[in-house]
Amino acid sequence: MELEDILRERDFRLTRPRRVVWEVLSESERHLSAAEIAEEVHRRDPGINVSSVYRTLALLAELDLVRESRLTETSTWEPAHADAVIHLVCENCGATRHHDAALVEDLRAEIARTADFAPSVIDVRVSGTCAKCPAPSTPR
Amino acid sequence: MELEDILRERDFRLTRPRRVVWEVLSESERHLSAAEIAEEVHRRDPGINVSSVYRTLALLAELDLVRESRLTETSTWEPAHADAVIHLVCENCGATRHHDAALVEDLRAEIARTADFAPSVIDVRVSGTCAKCPAPSTPR
DNA sequence: AATGTATTGCGAACGGTTTGCAAGAGGGCG
DNA sequence: CGCCCTCTTGCAAACCGTTCGCAATACATT
Questions:
Q1: What's the pTM value of the predicted model, to 2 decimals?
Q2: Dist CA B54 CA B59 (whole Å)
Q3: Where are the domains of chain A?
Q4: Which of A6, A43, A75, B118 is 20 to 30 A off residue B18, Cα-Cα?
C-alpha cells in the first residue's frame, strides 16, 4: 500500500491533499461520502480545498485505489477491495458492511454460461436489517 | 396494472402527467433516466413540465410502482419488478439488461445463514460485455 | 538552491433536482 | 350537469453537490 510508489509509477506527484485523502479513506472501516471525506480531510488540514478532494478521489479511482459505490442516494467511497464482495446495507441504521459469500463466484459462472454476457465486476447489494437493529419502524 | 385504482386507493388523483409518465415507463423495455422520461413525456404532451415528471417518479416509487436504480452514474427508472433480478450492464454499449438467475435465492439463504443480517431486497449488478459488443476499446 | 511543470486553492459556473406559489384541473356531491 | 374544495401542476427561481478556469503554489529533478 505505498501510495507514493503507485503515483510515481504513473508520473503523478505525491502531494499533501492526496496523502491526506488517502489516509482518511484507508483508515476508515466504512464507506464515506465525498462530504464526509472532505470534512475529515479539512479537519486534518484546513488548507485543503474541497475541489482537491474531488480531484483526488477521481485520480485514486482511476488508479484503482479506491472504489465509488452508488448503493445509496449519495455515492460513497472506500479503498478498492477484491471483487465479489457483498454489501449489506441496513435499512434501519444505514450502515454498510461487507460480507464474503462463496456463491458469488458460482453466480459469475452461471451468468457467463446462460446470459451471452462476459461478466467482469459483480456487485451485490443487499438491503435488509442487521442483527443489532430492531425491525424498521416504517416498513415499506 | 391499474394505475388509477392504485392511486385512488391512497387518495391520489389520476392526472395527465401521472398517466403519461406511467405509460412511458411501462412501455419501455429498458431502464430510462429521468431526462429520457421527461423527453418522451414531453414528446407525447409538450404541456407537461419536468418538475411534474420528477414529482410523479417520486410518487410512483413511493407506491412501489417504479424502482430507481443507481447502477450507473445517472440513476434510471423502470417499472418495479420481482426481486432477485440481475442487472447486466454492458461496459461497452451501456445497455442494461435483466437476467434471471436461480442462484440469487441461494445467495439470499447463504446471507441469512452466515451474516447476522435479514436480507430483504437483493440487487445484483454485473458489469461486463454483452455478446453483441466487441471487447471494450478502452479496457480499464 | 533553482527550475519546470503538475497541482492546488479559490471562486465562479454548471446541471440536475427541488421548491414556493398562484393558476388549473380532478372528482365527489348536490 | 355544474360547483366547489383541494390536490396538482406549470413556471421560474432556488438549491446543492460537483466541476472548471486560472493564477499562485509546491513537488521533484538537476
A1: 0.82
A2: 9
A3: 3-79, 85-128
A4: A75
